[in-house]
Amino acid sequence: MGLAALAVVTANLVMLAALKTWAPPDEALPGPVRGASTAPAATPSKLAPATADASRQDLNGVADIIKSPRGGSILVVGDGSGDEMDEWVSVWARDHLAGQATVSYNAWNWTSGRYADPVTFGSASRSLRVWNASVRTPDMAREPDRVVRAWQEADVVLLSYGHRRSATEIPAQLDAVLEAVRAKSQTASVVVLIQNPERARTEAIQQETTQAIKKWADAKGFPTVDIYSAFTGDPSPRDGLVEVDGSPTPQGSRLWAETVADALAAPPAR
């Protein structure tokens, strides 16, 4: 190769190297789209406090209904976690609600298909009616019909399901129960209870189910009461709080009732 040709090749190589290392000036780079936010996207953990605040506000509204001077009516629809006299619904009515109201407690009788005679707790001038439509091992395919039969005029409806349920099936089952509730009342406030954990053998299944219920409630915009975390946060041995079948023991029922009472307590006046 001649010297002249070699010089041309060398010049071309220098030019290619310069092009590879050249970067456009800052003003030539594309800027953000006008009107678009440049802030980093919020993570779920950053959104969680706002969600909790909204739920707390909703629960405060329910607390105001329960504490109303005119009294009120509460319907509990759920499973065998709260159907007995020593379980959370009656304990809540007797040990918490009756402190500031005369409570008429009415328990659903599955055999007769109607409510038993009322039991009265407390003696305050304000009155509350608690309709406990909880039943042991409800047939979820028939539960909407039972809800309609057990319906009473209610200001607040508490939904309490989860034990021995499938995480994949419970959302549709709750949809059907909610449809039955809304067929009777479009205005009743709905609160969803996230039930207690179970013993080790069935704990993983129950955890998945409670997570599915929480997701369902959030999607519907319903406030929740976190019984699950109250149990896991309690220092008592799990077997002292939960029966073999997953239902709360008397001690667990007291913890459950206390958790509901705290969640639905009206905020202090400012």
Automatic annotation (TrEMBL):
N-terminal signal peptide: 1-23
Organism superkingdom: Bacteria
Region: Disordered, residue numbers: 30-54
Keywords: Hydrolase, Signal
Coiled coil residues, start to end: none
InterPro entries in alphabetical order: SGNH_hydro_sf
Gene Ontology molecular function, alphabetical: hydrolase activity
SUPFAM superfamilies xrefs: SGNH hydrolase
Ubl conjugation recorded as keyword: no
Gene3D superfamilies: SGNH hydrolase (3.40.50.1110)
Protein's name according to its UniProt entry: SGNH/GDSL hydrolase family protein
Lineage: Bacteria, Bacillati, Actinomycetota, Actinomycetes, Propionibacteriales
